[in-house]
Amino acid sequence: MINNNLTIRIGGEAGQGMDTSGAGFARALVRAGLRVFANSDFMSRIRGGYNFYQLRVSDQPIYAPDNVVHLLLAFSPDAITQSLNDLAPGGAVIHDTSLKVDAAALAARNLRAFAFPFEAKALEIGRPAGMDPKRAKLMTNTAALGATAALTGFPFERIAEVILQNFGKKKGSAIADANLAMARWAFDEASKYADEFAWKLVPPVNPTNRMILTGNQAIALGAIAAGCKLIAAYPMTPATSIIEFMTAQSKRFNLVTKQTEDEIAAILYAIGANQVGVRAMCATSGGGFSLMVEALGMAGMTETPLVVVDSQRPGPSTGMPTRTGQGDLLFVMHASQDEFPRIVIAPGGIEACYFETARAFNLAEKYQCPVLILTDAFQAFSARSVDVEELPFEEFKIERGKTLTDAQLDALPPGEYKRYALTDDGISPRAIPGHPNAVYTATSDEHTEYGRIEDEDAANRVAQHSKRMRKIETMKREMRMPEWYGPADASLTLMGWGSTRYVIRQAVDELNARGITANALHFTDIYPLDEARLARELDKAHYLIDIEGNYTAQLARVVRMYTGRAVDNKILKYDGRPFTSGEIVDAVVKMTKDEGRKTNAFVFGRSSFVTQQETLK
Amino acid sequence: MTNTPLTPKSYEGEREITWCPGCGDYGIIAAVKQALAQLQIPPHQAFFVSGIGCGSKLPDYLKANGYLGLHGRTLPIAQGVKMANHDLKVIITAGDGDSFGIGAGHFLHALRRNPDVTMIVEDNKVYALTKGQYSPLSTKGWISSTTPDGSIEIELNPILLAITGGATFVARTFSGDPKHMAQTFAKAIAHKGFAFVDVLQICVVYNHVNTTEWYRPRLYKLDDDATYNPRDYDAALQKAREWGDRIPIGVFYVDERPTYEEQIPALARGPLVKQAHAGYSKETWDEFRATMM
């Protein structure tokens, strides 16, 4: 028996309801006091294809997906063929009797198949409940979860509770009753085989209260806690659920959420609102961010605070809409013409999405500049159970930097306010328009200290541009160095940024357990960083391996540009899928066996491993 | 602060104006000040948004809050400002190329929403600051450096577009008639909802067709026609199509529709800027947390 260490995958076609039932099951597990990490993998289509929802369950804190699947709930033939390599020996597949299954292939891998007449039963139960066959068939999901509960020894009452919540808005409704009957039947049927499945779920006696949050929800919550009152966005996967979630919460928190005509308008709405003192944001993916670039530079020039989220997916152009990647780092660092201060932050993990987004709003007002948050599809769609204490929403402290208070504005001599006053730290006291003592214009042209157009004067240009750029030096004092994880003085250091944080940590733990001493160096703050301090951090790494979801090793380039330190090796992946810790461990092990270390980069394909021929250095 | 009434001088900027001698913009800025004074809107409660181009320099020469943004992007900025602080009087001033070339898409969507802002288009039918290229409002056949054989596109009709798109106040005025301009701007700014004013503006350097001499004999005032009812949609559409020998100026169309801001529940408690940064109570967060469990 293996207690509370289980990964379940629900695979099938789009439209079969796997996400909904998977999320329902996750909720039941969390209410029972277990911890979950859920991630989904889906195609850019509404019906058909092959999608899966995966749920890792533990009684210990978990922050990333596991490498193996123990139980597969298969709703289509693809679900089985595409999962064969991921299933753990001794694991099982639950499927409908009508699904053709290659029993030999399963047996060869020591996998057990449990077949039940889900569809037939769904039609039988659905008909008297007045459900059409299509609707009735959706109940196979509920049944599969009932069967899962039975095989894993999970209490049926917990499942029943969630079914009632999902379907039973009106108590005793026919649909809720039918689903309950389906789950009960499947639970009873599968209970007969409970001894044949080794992984068990044993809820703790006193469950702790936990929420389930996705990365995008955590970003939205960071914004809300930081006093963001307006979000403007144009729908684009994988960022859309940020505005959707804020819209769903808009009445509770009194928010304005605006779906605009395009991303250009979205960023301009946010800039307009920020210009007059309201914290506002926009969220998009790389394609939408491309449209925002001109306005980003405008916010840089007018020194308007702004928070922009780029939830990355593979590109260029439309790329792979529902897949993940880390290809936008250099783009967001350098987007828009000429130079201006900006901040680039890439949170890693659900809780970091919350904390870093909230912090981004303080940084934006403190430094009066755009703050760019880089996340990606993997992190956007992943969900984790979060302890209530982990995210103390009400404790977040809003800091507005040199924003003038009403009292300060009242004390200003009328007509003398300089919005772009020259200061040592580059930050000028900022008046929110609307006070008689601080009437001013801001302009995208080069401008005087008063904010008036000054397109010609060279001395003024030098003074203003230097003032703006001085903010970068000021920022560096508080921007954070990359974070170490694992034993100091390890022989290998795995370097990464953003969403790979916990997967790399998991890989580090696995490597150390196998006797390869490794640690991790993770970047959340990426720009700007103090070069000298960063160089000292990197000096601690003996053999530096860069791990990134792009082709050109963008972080490695940034690090080398700022410190001169080149990485010793790279693990790169750009197939649209997230890294797994198993893949990283395999790659590192191969590197250590590579006598003389002839290769200098490893690149992954889907479930394959190749040595990159060309030199990326 | 004293309570002396505001006069056009109250909005006088400190800047040297860089428009060409004889430019229609001089009349426009004077009329804007007149209108503000007539409505007694203090400079700190006005917020001008402009784009890029000759006319878009207007807020730089005024004493009032303003944001001189990007070419073609006035409307989304203005709507963001208005949503954030609907106590501000938001006024857009931009040229015809800015508003109907690069910015045409935003115009159509602003019309649908009816934000309570005023848009004054300085319509000289030419790209002047880039030295004379044709604009979306230049008459077909316009000869310029990028259309040496004459443009082969027909011109947009901004009045017709505004009415059919959903503007709730649509007017046209003329840069050579200061009094009519000031009156029209004042009506537009006082209007609750999206007010659009097309200002026929002369450009003494690059537009040698639509000159004062060309306009004067053609213009007539809708106000002089007692039978014209600007609340009659069909009549407004007819008038909007009139161009050539006779060109109407004045208020074409007025309608009442809830403003965009009025329909946003979060703004019922007052301007967003006054609600922000206060944080939320533990009770609010507790209720929220319960929904995520």
Which architecture of chain B would the CATH scheme give at its second level? 3-Layer(aba) Sandwich
**What would you say the CATH architecture of the largest domain in chain A is?**
3-Layer(aba) Sandwich
N- to C-terminal separation of chain A?
49 Å
N-to-C terminal Cα separation of chain B, in Å? 54 Å
Question: Assembly type of the shown chains?
Answer: heterodimer
Q: Report the principal-axis shape of chain A.
A: globular
Poorly predicted regions of chain B: none
The total beta strand count of chain A reads 25
Mean pLDDT across all residues of chain A, rounded?
94
| CA-atom Rg of chain A in angstroms | 27 Å
Structural class of the secondary elements of chain B? alpha/beta
- Shape category of chain B: globular
Strand order of the largest sheet of chain A: 7-6-5-2-4-3-16-9
- Describe the biggest sheet of chain A? 8 strands, mixed
Q: Can you offer a commentary on this structure?
A:
- The complex is a heterodimer of chains A (617) and B (293).
- Chain A has 617 residues and is of the alpha/beta class.
- Chain A folds into 4 domains: 2-200, Pyruvate-ferredoxin Oxidoreductase, domain 3, CATH 3.40.920.10; 212-395, Rossmann fold, CATH 3.40.50.970; 406-476, no CATH class; 483-611, Rossmann fold (3-Layer(aba) Sandwich).
- In chain A, α7 runs antiparallel to α8 and α9 packs across α10.
- Chain B is of the alpha/beta class and 293 residues long.
- Chain B has one domain: Rossmann fold.
- Chain B has helices spanning 24-39, 74-84, 96-102, 104-113, 158-165, 178-190, 212-215, 233-240, 272-275, 282-291; strands at residues 46-50, 65-68, 89-95, 117-123, 126-127, 133-134, 169-174, 195-200, 219-221, 247-254.
- The longest helix of chain B is centred in the N-terminal third of the chain and has 16 residues, at 24-39.
- Chain B starts with 23 loop residues before the first helix and ends with a helix.
- At the A-B interface, β9, α9, α11, α12 and α13 of A face β1, β2, α2, α4 and α9 of B.
- β17 of chain A pairs parallel with β2 of chain B.
